[in-house]
Amino acid sequence: MWYQSRLNLFKILLSISFVWTGFIVSAQCNFKPIGHRGGSSYYFPENTLVSLEQGFIEDIYAAEVDVRFTADSVLVLMHDFYIDRTTTGAGEVEKLSLNYLKTLDAGSWKNEKFAGTQVPTLKEALELAGKYQKKLYLNMKVFAPKLIARLLKESNLPGDIILLDPDDLDKVKAYHEILPNTPLVYFGDLPTNIEDQEFYTTLKKNGVVAIEIPADYIYNSHDNRMEELREMVHTNAMQLWAYTVNDPAYFKFLKDFGIDALETDRPSEAYQVFCNNGVGGYFPEKRITGQWDFNQNLNGTIGSKMTVMGDTSVVGQKVRFGTTTAFHIPSIENKATNVALIPAFDPQHALRFFSNIAPEGIPGGLDCDNTYSLVFDLLKPAGKNTYTTILQTSNNNSDDGDYFISGDKNAIGVLEQYNGSFADSTWVRLALVFDLYKERLEQYIDGNLIATLSLPDSKNGRFCLNNNWGVQSSNFFSDNDGETNPIFISSIQVRNYAMTASEVKWLGKPKAAKIESVILAEEDLSCPQFSESVKMVKTSNELSLVANAGDQVNYKWEMNDGKGWIDIRGTAFRNQMSGTLRIVSSPEQYNGYLFRCIASNDCKTTSNEFLLKYTTTSISLGLDENNTVLVYPNPSDGNVFVDLSKSSGKSDICITSLTGIKVLEQKDASGICSFNLNPGTYLIQVSNNQYSSCNKILITR
Prior knowledge:
The protein has about 700 residues and is an alpha+beta fold.
């Protein structure tokens, strides 16, 4: 069977299910983790049911979701006004029908394992929140209080299962009038006089429970205004919330300041810092957040697809696809390779890409990322213009490009710092490593460092990449005055960190198989190590599985019901992204499941596999070790064995469904008895004149 290599016999002792060891200490903590864009969007696709459920399992207080109208007036979850970044479709949400949106894949851009995830309606999200008894915090991109009231009524859910975010006092009053039982979180401008009592009184009497501000209001404050705001909010029996932070050091800063709730893509790690004095895990993990291999389209091999900004019907402004052979250009590693021909874009056109780098560190004034790496496999034919633009961080192509190939020798650089050279019509691998905190750019050709450029005052400036906040895209191969030439591209990759010289060296030259999606851990990085095996611990009202690989790692639990390892799912679980997995209800239904914990920094370590053996339904009358009943395997593919060979005398076996319907019965049984059952969950009762027992078994076939 599926676990026989580790356990040949699933044995349930009727008198003792297991020995409890240890205790979980849970201090009271009033901090409220708010899952940004749908529960837990650091690893899961934002504004989807899978992200919502993950956040609920992580035990967030509320999931912040973004809400928009479709063309047929249905409220759906979507942050951007267009769907290009997070789905396989394109266009503006308000111009598309729900039926069309439901045909799209809204998950694979984040990870292939989420392929097939749909764009959810607000009603579907409400029903899931009701199932987990959690809250939805609605970031309303449209104003629709009456429709929300109707959805709550249709779903038979209380008004306080949601929170709303009015951004002015008129909306505060309108929301409260139509939804008097729904708490509000004020999201608008603060008064000029931060101590204006009338402002807080108006909010309070109209159902506002909290005021939310950008976290950098606090970080960048140069006077006592934010402290005064906190005191006024608390004096008026409201809370002060902030958004959006993922960095552990920033968690600690906001905790010391005294905020009450925080929007974050990493709610479990925030909770560690705010409530358990933890370090907030390992952050940021090295990640490849975007890759495009141009296999006859602009789809992302990793991350979101690219789009062409501007009217592609304009002559000469359309990306063309083909092979190196079809384009009559040199092959890569002597193999015909899929490539794209990027035209010489005019100022109205650009190749738009999304870095998908989550907010890291202290958000800057431009809300963008200051450390990242770009890798290009490219071939530049001879062109008529002096410059060929590679990178353009201006979203609307309104400024000069930010990186160029220049002159007859194809020197590379910017700001009059040009170095190196390569031949026209030759494939090269160009790597650009930006560390704007250090105000520098390292540039490599075929793995060799060409030069390090100085980029003065570049932090949060010209060269930083737009991230997942407001403006979320940047451009390739465009310039505001057309300083560019046509160029062939085989592969492009974006990483969320500044690569080391040895890592770029390892990538080497262009490959026919495209840019390798391998991340090399730092030489001095110690991979996580579990100090002991997974343990099962019981408190007064729940069961927990506990693993420990240290503080500066990120945790994730998986389970296996016999069909392979999957992410933790179901209302029974909490804290899936911590070292302690809580099973808050009916642990016996997971009897026979394997569980394991994965700890990661930039490398991963997996714990031992723990086989859950737990029953609360066992009955024992004078049973000792010589009267052991063995029921195996559990779960089963249909063939179940009851071993009575160690029991004295003969026994009666009765198998019933959970609703009490008798399925099978055998009188005067002894030895090993075999039964074949259909998929489902059953109770197997074994009794004689000395004892009685009842075991639950799962049939998974």
